[in-house]
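Q: Hi! First time doing this. I have a protein sequence and I read that you can turn it into a structure. Is that right? Here it is:
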Amino acid sequence: MRRAALALGGALLAWAGPPVPTPPPHYEAPLWPAPRPFQQPQGSWESRESDESREPDGSGPSRKPRDGTAYSRDDTAAQVVAAVNRHRTRAGCGPVRLRASLNRAAQAHSADMARRQRLTHTGADGSGPAARMRAAGYHPRHTAETIAAGVTTPQAAVRTWMDSAPHRDIILTCRYTHAGVGVADGGGGPWWTLDLATGH
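A: Yes, that's right. Below is the predicted 3D structure, encoded as structure tokens:
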């Protein structure tokens, strides 16, 4: 009897209550939209820059789809913003206007993503969207950024963002007044950046 009581006491000491739950594994949201394996699509932009490919005013390289139609970077940015503003108008928001400084920030980030083959809001130097806007000469008060890879036209890029609730909410935030657009070639691309902001 004494032996049984000792065994029971030992069992009670060994049992310290229900097991402590282990914390869930660290969750990392998947990249969105995930870059597709690269296939050079018809209509994608040449990535080389030369004196012949620069705009007449020297502001930057023109982009030429493989079908021979020429699109300048300014044309591409204007098409993205026109598509964005159509959605904003339907939602009762005012239009956003392109700013050269935001275009510089967005273009630099698209080029950075293309070089690293990574869809991310964090630059290779650890910068975020607001820091990149400031570095490009813009003084932001409110900022947002949407990115995409693997879509080949301005309209398809905007449609990709509008098909995602978080990105649609950003585009349809009425307080944004300015925009910048960047697009860069590279495996898995083109790589797109849309910066939206309100300045001081």
